[in-house]
Here is the input.
Amino acid sequence: MKFPPLPPDADEQPEQVVSFHFEDVSFELPHAGRLVEWLRGIAHSENKPFVEVNYIFCSDEYLRQVNVEYLDHDYYTDIITFPYGEAGEIHGDLFISSERVADNAQALGVPFEHELCRVMAHGVLHLAGYGDKTPDEEALMRQKEDFHLAQLPA
Here is the structure.
């Protein structure tokens, strides 16, 4: 016998699977709802379960400190990915330097929002199991980023 589903508890909030946090920076995150759906779509197209992702936007210096403290790397970067859960699950914390994203956008001649989305997708792809340490891995990562950026709703 199959029982009907129980109605949700009035006090129970549905789990939010994508969260955006701002540490020592502030900027407008364009179309957050569409971004969330797009990010979930990346996981779906990569056949990976989407559990939970926290995006923590911060400054160059904040992210360098995270890099030093947790990874023993003393340099600036645009993103650091901390995976949780099972391998291949989209579950983790993604620290992104908005200053580094802005600098990269200017150097590449693209809008800040475009580069921000590329870096956000990059983090999800890391959680999905893609690396970028070797030239072959980096080339595949860029190909995946470009593919998913093309799927971003206007």
Summary: Residues 112-127 form the longest helix (16 residues). Helices lie at 32-45, 60-71, 98-108, 112-127, 135-150. Residues 9-14 have pLDDT under 50 and may be disordered.
